[in-house]
Each structure stands twice: as structure tokens, then as C-alpha cells.
Amino acid sequence: MTTVPESRTAVSPGQRHLLLDPGMDLTLRPMRYPQFFDRFKDAIKNTWTVEEVDLHADLADLAKLSPAEQHLVSRLVAFFATGDTIVANNLVLNLYQHVNSPEGRLYLSRQLFEEAVHVQFYLNLLDTYVPDERERFAAFAAVENIPSIARKAEFCFKWIDSIYELRKLRTRADRRAFLLNLICFAACIEGLFFYGAFAYVYFLRSRGLLHGLASGTNWVFRDESMHMAFAFDVVDTVRAEEPDLFDAQMRQQVRDMLAEAVDCEVQFAADLLEQGVSGMPLADMRDYLQHVADRRLAMLGIEPMYGSPNPFAFMELQDVQELSNFFERRVSAYQVGVSGTVSFDDDF
Amino acid sequence: MTVTREQAEPEPRRQVMQVRKRNGDAEPVDVNKIVKAVERWVTDLDEIDPLRVATKTISGLYDGATTAELDKLSIQTAAELIGAEPQYSKLAARLLAAFVDKEVRGQQVASFSQSIRYAHGLGLVGDDTAAFVARNARKLDDAVDPAGDLRFEYFGLRTVADRYLLRHPQTRLVVETPQYWLLRVACGLSQTPGEAIDFYRLMSSLAYLPSSPTLFNSGTRHTQMSSCFLVDSPRDELDSIYERYHQVAKLSKFSGGIGISWSRVRGRGALIRGTNGRSNGIVPFLKTLDAGVAAVNQGGRRKGAACVYLEPWHPDIEEFLELRDNTGEESRRTHNLNLANWIPDEFMRRVEADADWSLIDPSDAPELPDLFGEAFDEAYRAAEKKAVRTVKARDLYGRMMRTLAQTGNGWMTFKDAANRLSNQTGAPGNTIHLSNLCTEILEVNNDAETAVCNLGSINLSAHVRADGVDWDKLRATVRTAVVFLDRVIDINYYPAEQAAASNPRWRPVGLGLMGLQDALFTLRLPFDSAEARDLSTRVQEEILLTALETSAGLAERFGPHPAYAQTRAAHGQLHPDLWGAQVTQVERWAALRDTIAAHGLRNSLLVAIAPTATIASIAGCYECIEPQVSNLFKRETMSGEFLQINTYLVDELKARGLWTASIREQIKRAEGSVQGIAELPESVRLLFRTAWELPQRALIDLAATRAPFIDQSQSLNLFMSAPTIGKLSSMYLHAWKSGLKTTYYLRSRPATRIQQATVAVTPAATPIVAVSDDEALACSLENPESCEACQ
């Protein structure tokens, strides 16, 4: 472990720490951001392992897909092959460094673990779905050779690089740059790219296809929901501490960034759906992405840009309590952490 | 699949969107044609907008799609509107029925008898049924109810179409319509066409359905129609263990659900005399069982399923309780096995007294699995001096509770109540060693005999009107049901000799119930009210009484079952007597006793309440004796995702002018709870509570009060959003004290959930979605559905 003495010298006695103050705060008590610690504990209860997902049942479905649907799935898994790794990289290179709260870093450590599990899940997925080795290598290299995926990757790299050189958030401009990076990963990458990808998976599942992929995705989706919630929590905290950071210019930058992300994702959708998939027209996918983008803006307190309603009834189903049959799939409902001791007069 | 790198050349856009017909011709998409196809089905549905379905279908289509794709999309489109208007469920079902019909007719099948002949030629239907249908073709063809499919809801019919209808072995096209399927099931169990038609009508009305194995296999070449098999523990030797693997595989292959005990096999560290080595214990053997069960594919419908039972004095009990954990060494995890504790009263007494508990190796006390009651207590105490280890009873009980909370598994089933309160344990040497995959079957077995049970369930909602239960109709249904459950025993194909050895001797059947919640909604009785408890008990008394009457009548004609002399009934003790329970129909019970004294019983056991997961979906009612889990939830099955709305609530809201988009949103946001809807009066909110919002004590008390009229047991799920060890240990102690023989899953909810994607966000809201104790009631969640091998 490295100790960074600066953490103690950066703030003079009596002065309140701010979340984005440079340094490596080590003191958990008194806890400044207990809500981050709660999120850390909740995340642990969601532990799942890749071995719990049975992907082999999907192979029979894959053989049944039309060429258009096969194309959709192959592009989709190619995106999954690298998506979570990119998020993990940004977490390590940028977020962990600058969110100066030990409890916040606990959560980020946990998130990093979850991203690793997701990477492993998609690794497993591709190994199972793409038995031919050469095709498999091509899928993993999608960032380089599939233009619609390369464009999304470039968008991500641009924002990783935007603060890569920043070692410390010394100025107001530094902090704004950091916030934009954070918002980009929460609202655009986890909150839009992944939500777009999940929509294809749930579309297929609503047709009774690829349950293995869907059950793993359920767990990934649950984790990603938490990641996004944490990131927005950090944004809200910083805004409360330093309200002037979030001005009109920043709002405009967020809007521009989201608009670019929507464009990226729409061109990806155009590629996925180019052969015509019954029940998922490109126009609906565009509406859906715009609808999601508006929601991200709403979470940041910014006026919606598109006003598009959600066109996908199967996504509304994702908001509804799930009952699933034990004989068909394993359920993602169980809790890992349980507390208490044996007693006989508790209320039940 | 292949990863495509090149994009195909897009075809030039046509002016008007075209579809390709089944014969290959292209034609322009015509909205009026779709509207007409919808209108045909909605004469009795006043809330449907055919144009809306048609335009939405077309907007989802792509140029050059096939008409089959168009048909499928229109079904899907109708199904997606169910959330706003439940009547679309009926429409989607009818469009699907029309689609299936087209598929069957497309193979030159125009009648029931033709479908049987065709399927027989394909090797699907058995010779006897084919001959029976050929002999009675005209009568049977005329019996098909053309309106039968109108009764299905979408989810039910989708399940039927995807999994129950016979399919062509190569083309995978369905070769029978839903009504042909039910008539085929009836013919497979009938001796006369009149009998077949009566049974078909009962099933087609959805007032009663046999369990899934019967619905899958009746009339086919392999008529394995039993749901449950209870396999005794292997003997403590290698040959016996491997024989059990083989037996389980054979039983699994034809849709049976397996319960198997493992209490006789020695624990880790015990001496193996043959090699002078030490045993690795039961876990590696269960790992092998796990893989074996997963490898067996039940006709492509689902993987095999099994539940392992272990008594808590076994030295490997702690490792057993960890078999389903999702952390730890994979070689010691069994993700496909269900786990149950088979608990003697002595253990619970020691938990209560905070006493020690001895773990004893079965090789040191091989008699323990065969004993119950005082004989067990004595033998156990005597064996304690040979204990491998001693633990605090409460520590072990706490670990059981932890397993329940973390995995929902590790079901608590009670050995002494199960044996003391059974008709089959009337003679020494007959012991119930375990329950089944769904904890509702309790039957004696042994090394050479595997207990078998075939099941069916009455849909109570079809026997209730707003003014009460239609008792005559209920009795009539029970009589028909018992006759056909009994019939299965003789026609059944037994996949293992041990099963064939047991079933004809004891002839047990399990007549169950579903739709209790529907009945309570219809009668407007809150689930935890005294009136609900009374109704459920009276219904159960009627079912057991009528079932016993029918079985005594069968005994009069065909003789009692061969092992009758070994039953308690042979000594004049009927099931309510074992409980010391009050009966209300005193005269009928007295007359029944006389009949039984004169003729005996054809069946040693008659009533068991199975989970009914799948058949309740087909019948469109709530599962077995369970409260609703949510007013709004979805089901995920191999067929896709399905929104389920409480239509009783929808009717109530409509009557009050409250069925609005904003209320729907509110229910969705509250994850299926209506407790926050202030516009609803308190009494209505009480009626529409979910399983998570009901006191679990009430569920247990309801079960315990009806238990004297269930001669086997009931699959009783318990629900707790945020379980703690304290709450669980209190709850299960109460369940044991109230005399329940078995409990089933502990349902709980995940710690956090996926962020809602379509419910409006409030600006700058922090969308944390953790479920804490306090907010758990308002925020309901994913929850597993119950067993299906049984139903």
C-alpha cells in the first residue's frame, strides 16, 4: 500500500474535505459519505458467478435464428466482448484516482470486481457462441474491424483520454473535466450503450430466445444499474458541495455529449438491424435510445432533448417483478448476506 | 452461429411494403386485412381496438417479411397491450390458436381422428390410443368443442403450444390443436368414448387438469404419467449408490421429478473396511448425482430435477447445507439439486431447549432412517455415545435458516409428523423416508420399492360464484378426477422396476387444488381472514371426503389396494382422526366409515396439494393454495416473457374509474403493490395485498387448519422480503409446532434490483434501489416460481 502524505496536507485543519479534493483520504471514521458505504454493502449482496449461468441451452436457439437475427446477435456479442473492459479501464485510470473518499473507493473496488465478472461472462459467452477459433478472434477484435463498434469505442477512448493526463484536480476546469468524464461513463456508456445492448437481449428473450444470455444479462443489468446510480450519486454530491461547477456551459456539454452518444448508438443499431428484424424496426430503436437519453438528462436535472416515448413494450416488462420457473432457469433473486441469530419471538 | 463481417447488399426499397406468402408469392401489406383478422375474434371483448393492433403490427414489420412473421408479430403486438387492457390477453390467445390451427391444417389434418392417425404414423401416439380413436372416430370428432380455445388466456395457450402439443419429429410443426391435445389425453385414459368425452369436457372447461407428465404423455408411446418418484437412500455401499444414479436417470427421462434420500450413506472420514481407507463423505457422490440429473433432458422440455433429503444427525449435514452456495469450491457445489432437511422432532426439541446435538455416522447407527417417533428418539439417544461430533442444536438450526435465506433451498420437512399422520404407516416396518421434489408427497418406500404418485388439480375458481362455492359441481369434479387418477396407475409406463413394484400395491394418488386466491378474490375475503380460513378448510374437507367416498366405491368394484391391511384405515382410523380434527359433514363421514369397513379403499392416499406452476398458467388461475405474489408481475419461461395482471384488481379499479395510466404507473413503480393508492378504500387494499404483505403466520395457520383434510401434504411456500435469522427461526419453529408435515421454498427478494427503464424519473433523484427492511413492503421484486415437475 502506498500512503500519500498529501491527503493530510491538502486540507488545513478545520476546513471541510470536498469529494474531489486531490489526495488519498484514508480515514473511514467519522464517515463522510455513509451512502457510498451502504452501496458497497448492497453490491456485495448481489454477488453472482459466471458458473451459475447456463449458456449451452442457447446453442439450439442460435441454430434457429434467421440470418438477420444471427447478424444482430453476432454484432451484439462482439460489442460485449470489449464493452466492460473499457469501463473497467476508465474506473482504474480516472475514477478511482479522483473520488477522494475511502468509502467511495470501496464501492469502486467492488465495481471493478463486478466489471471483471462481466468481462468473464462475455468471454464465456463468446467462447460458447462462436466455436470456430478464427471467427472468435475476429469477434474479440471487433473494436478494430467492425466500423459500427469502432465508432463507439472511439467515443469512449476520447473521454478516457480527456482527463488521462490529469493527476490532480487542482482547478475548477479540472473538476469540470472530471465530472464530464464521469457523466460520460454513467450516462452515455453504462447508461445508454449498455441499455441499448440490453434492449436487444430482452427483445430476443421476449420472443423466447437465448435465455442463457438473458439470465446473465439480468445480473449484469442489475450491477450496471448500481454503477450508474453510484456515479450519479457522486455527481449529485459534487454538485451539492460545489454548485457553481454545474453551470449552463456544462449542461450544454452534457447535452452535446449525449447527442453524440445517441448518434453512435443509432449507427450501431442501423448495422445490427440492417437485414430487417420483425418487431424491431430501426425507427423504434432510435426512439428508445432517445427516450433513454432523456431519462439520463432528467436524472441530472436537465430538460429532455427529444421527448420520445418508449416504443418497446418488452422493456416495460423489465420494470415489472419477475417470477421465473426454477425448472427452467435459475433466479437472480437471492441474497448473499443474511444477518441475525436464532430466536423464537421475532415477528413474521 | 457465425460472426458476419461483411454486410449484405441492401435490396432496393419498394414503394409499398410487401409480405411473402406461404406459397412464395409477394403481396402488399393490407391494414384492412389485419383489422378483419382481429375483428373476427373480439365479438365478446368490448375493450379491444383492432385498428391499433393492425397499425402497430405493420410498423414493426420490415419489407419482404413472410406472412408467418406477420401473424407472429400480430400475436406479439396484442400481447404487448395486455398491460394497458387485460382483454388483449384473450385476443393474443385467439390469434395464436388461429396460427396453430393453420399449422395443423397445413399438414392435411382436418379432424381429431386424422390428427391421431397422422401422429401415430409418425410414431408419436401409442397403438392402443390410435386403435381406440379409430374405432370411435365419428363420436370423438363430433365431441371437439370449437369454442374451447376461446377460454384460454395468452400465457396459458402459449405454454400449451410451445410445450404440450405433439410435434412432427423432423419439421417440428405441431400436429394437433389444443382441443385435440386434451381429447388425446382423455382418450389415453379411457375405456369408452362416453368416458373420454366427459373427461375431455372437464379438462376443456379448465375446471380440472391432470399434472404435466399426464398432459405430456397420455396416449403417447411412452405413457409415463406420474409426477413424483420417492427413492429411498442408497445403501451404504458403492453398488447401491451407482444403481441409484441409473434409476434416477431412467425416472427423469420421462418427466418425473425425483426425491431421493441420502441418509444411509456414511459421512466424511468414516472407515471403509474393504480398502482400509477413509470415506470422502456424501458430497462427491451428490456432485455426481447433480451432473447426472442435469444431463437428462426430459423430451427437450426441460432438464431433469431432483431433491436430496438428509436427516440432520448425518455428520456431513453442514457441507450438505452449503451445496447450493454460489461461492466456494465448485467441486463441492450442486447447482441442479434441490435440498431438503428431513427433521425428527428430537432435533426441534433440542433447538428449543438450546441443547447439544450429536452427529452420528449412519455406518454406526444404520437403523436410524427407518425409525420415527419414540423408537427413533430412543435409538438416537443410545447412538449418541458413538457420536462423530457434537454441535449446539441452535447453531445447526441457524445454519439451516441461513441456507434458506441465501438460496431458498434447504426445505424444512418434518419426519415425525409425516409418519405419525400417514395412512401408510399402520404396520411396523413401513416408514416414510422423505418427501418428493415439491414436498407435497409423503409415501413409504424402501430399498426395493420406489414410491410413485400421479397428480391432478382442481381449479377452485371454476367452482365458485359471487354467492359461494358450487358444492355439487365440486363433488362431481372430485369424483371424475379420482377415477382418472386411479386409472393412471394401471396404464402407466414405469421407467424403473422399483417404481413398478410399489405403485400397484399402494395405489396412492394426489388430488390437489389451485385457484384458492381466485376464489377468495371472487368472494372478497382477505387471505388472512377467519372466513378465508374456514372456506379453505371446508373445501378441503369436501375434497378429501368425496375422494375417500369415490375410492371406497372403486374398492367395492375392483377390491381394495393390495397393501390395504397395512394401513391405518384398515383399523378404522381415517386421516382427520389422526389429527383429532372436528369434521362438519358428520353423517357423510359416518356413512363413509361403514363403506370402508365393508370394502376398504382402492387408494392408500388421495390428496396432496402440489405447486401447479404450469397447469395453473394453462387454466389461467393462481397457483395452488398460494396468495398472489404481486398485482403486476411478469413470468419468464422458455416461451418468452409474459405480463400478468391481477384482473380482479383491474375490474375493481375500472368500476371505480381508477384504471388510468397514472394508477398503472403507480402500481408498476410500487412493483405490484396497491397499498400506496390512497384512492382505494382500506378494505380493498387489504383484499389485494400480496404474499409479501401478508403476515406469514396467517399462511402457516391456514395450512395447518386445512392439513387434517390432506392425507399427504402441501407445497407451502413462505415469503419474506428481507429475511433475518431471527425471523426465520421464529417462523419455522411455529410451522413445526403447528403440526405441518412439510414446508417448501423460502421466497425472498434480491438486495437491489435493476433500475426501472420506463417509469418516469424525478429530476436529480438518486435512484438507489436497495431494499431495506423498512421499505421492503413497498418495493417488491423478482421472485422465483415454483416447481413444475409436480405439475
TrEMBL record, chain A:
GO biological process, one term: deoxyribonucleotide biosynthetic process
Positions that bind Fe cation 1: 84, 115, 118
Transmembrane helix found in the keyword field: yes
Details of cofactor binding: Binds 2 iron ions per subunit.
Binding-site positions, Fe cation 2: 115, 190, 224, 227
Molecular function terms from GO: metal ion binding; ribonucleoside-diphosphate reductase activity, thioredoxin disulfide as acceptor
Transmembrane segments: 177-203
Cofactor needs: Fe cation
Family: Belongs to the ribonucleoside diphosphate reductase small chain family.
Oligomeric form and interacting partners: Tetramer of two alpha and two beta subunits.
Function: Provides the precursors necessary for DNA synthesis. Catalyzes the biosynthesis of deoxyribonucleotides from the corresponding ribonucleotides.
Organism: Micromonospora zingiberis
Name the record gives this protein: Ribonucleoside-diphosphate reductase subunit beta
UniProtKB/TrEMBL annotation, chain B:
Coiled coil: none
Catalytic activity: a 2'-deoxyribonucleoside 5'-diphosphate + [thioredoxin]-disulfide + H2O = a ribonucleoside 5'-diphosphate + [thioredoxin]-dithiol
EC category: oxidoreductase
Transferase listed as a keyword: no
Annotated ranges, domain ATP-cone: 17-106
PROSITE patterns in alphabetical order: ATP_CONE (PS51161), RIBORED_LARGE (PS00089)
GO annotation terms (biological process): deoxyribonucleotide biosynthetic process
Keyword Ribonucleoprotein attached: no
The entry's keywords: Allosteric enzyme, ATP-binding, Deoxyribonucleotide synthesis, Nucleotide-binding, Oxidoreductase
GO terms assigned for molecular function: ATP binding; ribonucleoside-diphosphate reductase activity, thioredoxin disulfide as acceptor
NCBIfam families per UniProt: NrdE_NrdA
Name the record gives this protein: Ribonucleoside-diphosphate reductase
